[in-house]
Amino acid sequence: MDLEEKLGILTNAAKYDVSCASSGASRKGAKGGVGNAAASGICHSWTSDGRCVSLLKLLYTNACMYDCSYCVNRRSNDVPRASFTPQEVAGLTMAFYRRNMIEGLFLSSAVAISADRTMERLIRVAEILRNREHFGGYIHMKVIPGASRRLVERLGYLADRVSVNIEFPTDQELSLMAPDKTPEGIRSNMLSVRDRKLELLPSLFRGSRPPAFVPAGQSTQMILGAGNSDDREVLNKAESLYQMMGMKRVYYSAYVPVNLPLEEAIRVRTPLLREHRVYQADWLMRFYGFQAREILGERRFLDQKVDPKAAWAVDNFHLFPLDVNTAPREMLLRVPGLGPRAVQRILQARRLAAISYDSLAKTGAVMKRARHFITAQGRRPHLLTDDPGRVYRALAGEDKDAFRQLSFLDTV
Amino acid sequence: MMECVFDGSFNGLMTLVFDTWRLGDEVTAVIQETDAASLLPGRHFPTDDSKAARILTYIGSRLGEEFAFMVKAAFLSARAERFRAIVKTIHRACQMGPAALDLLEDDILCFLACHREVTREAHRFQGLLRFRELKDRSLLAVFAPRHHVLPLILPRFADRFPGEKLILYDEGRGIAGISEQGKITLARVAELSPQDSDGEQELEGLWRVFFDHLAIKERFNPDLQRQHVPKYTWKHLPEMRGKP
Lengths: 412, 244
Prior knowledge:
The complex is a heterodimer of chains A (412) and B (244).
Chain A: H1 3-12, E1 45-46, E2 52-53, E3 55-59, H2 86-98, E4 104-108, H3 115-132, E5 138-142, H4 149-156, E6 161-163, H5 171-177, H6 183-205, E7 218-224, H7 231-244, E8 249-254, H8 262-265, H9 272-287, H10 292-296, H11 308-315, E9 322-323, H12 329-332, H13 340-352, H14 367-370, E10 374-375, H15 388-395
Parallel strand pairs in A: 3-4, 4-5, 5-6, 6-7, 7-8, 9-10
Antiparallel strand pairs in A: 1-2
Helix pairs in contact in A: 2-3, 3-4, 4-6, 7-9, 11-15
Chain B: E1 2-6, H1 10-19, E2 27-32, E3 43-44, H2 49-63, H3 65-75, H4 82-96, H5 106-128, E4 132-133, E5 139-143, H6 150-160, E6 166-170, E7 175-180, E8 183-188, H7 200-214, H8 222-228
Parallel strand pairs in B: 1-2, 1-3, 5-6
Antiparallel strand pairs in B: 4-5, 6-7, 7-8
Helix pairs in contact in B: 1-2, 1-4, 2-3, 3-5, 4-5, 5-6
């Protein structure tokens, strides 16, 4: 089998893993080496599904021993199988990197023979890149679920980011869908990374520079819509991963029914809107100071018509309107239509002079949304509705003007 | 009411900032002098490097290095109003310090927009630039950015590939940037006639195989793709060439 054919098969087999970020590590180019890493991450292209291409995303092999029901590479599937050699993966990485096509390598693998044997192959690739090619670009490596602590730690000194996919929010669901993986194995892999990072912290404070260990942190992924779990379970799990495991990112992937016969598969809709809403909720937890239970309120699933921040604001309508000249930052961040940048500009501008209602749009606020929740110097459009039900419909795009009926008794 | 004309160089603009210091609000337009338009009415400001140096020192020490960088980045913008926005913003910042950038005034918002668009496009081309290997093993990238981002991105590529000879060619402006052995130079180049090295075709083929296999057809979303990879960049991307 030639390289082109292998590349096709093993790209195809890797594409459902959604994490693509190349962010979180910062490294200058070294003399005699090739490559650096930018903290913000860099995207090099976007495929026709609108997803970013940052890393050379490959499976080392797709010949799997496991038989997970949701996975395209499961043992019982009749698909073409292929395996790279470590030299081939390293060679492709260097050739693409030199032409600025990629930011680095993302390497995952099916489980061949055993978790540890597979991990050793991945480590070999990373060793060639770092030690022989002096590659300074980004490396994201998958930890094979259940691999031993010793190997996870070795990999951590070579890669910028490592990840092991948790796949489902509950242990029961994982056991059902992926009978060969154990929740304990995945948890222990995450703990190995977290604990070693914590062990290295004190020496950082002492001013010595230990060798970098997973500098961009670890990430993981959950599949939405393959099992029965609801958004509440997904968000609670994500929150605990951020807080307890020191996870840098949790990715979510709308389930594509790869293992159903075509006539059944076309009837299953890939839950893209659900995925979108869950990502929005994830952002609220990471950048807007929300907690999972606040976002969901009484719901099991996130509102589909409006985004979770708008849904929260309508649920808590009694807290509004806020005066942009006096409200604290935490509350401004909770106003639909105000993002971190608009809030920052409001805070800076109001230090110099009070902000008028008319100049609010210049801060970058989306006034069509924000107008229902804010006032400036006691002013807001006179006839705006104060009925939360109508505000909800306005935010959902169902009520165009959202002005209340002009009454006889109004003084205009 | 005063229309100010300068020669289009960065030092020229800084001279203009220096000379219009006391005129403040009277400046209404700042125009670049072109050969055809040298008879433009309005006041001409001949470039004086020492005045420009004094302004730059002042900006660097009183308003901060970050502000100085923003001025340089905004200058690279392709917006027509960029010169006026830069002059007005510096004048304002000299009156009240870097906090001037927090004012919600049109000239200042325009200045910030210039800076934002330039840095954003520079970031975009850090990803969307493609090199190909030439016969002598040097790496050539041809691109056509909207803003003049070449001076911003060249040092970043020089850091990334310290051992390579790099040529970045801005096709629209006819300017090439070269990085070789830690040295960076810019030059006007009317035309290039590059010769690719032997394996280049196959390598591009492999890249296209990777790219085409990566998309998930159930998630097909070409609008989102175009939002991130605008059409004006397609011509120079091997993975997009020949696509509708």
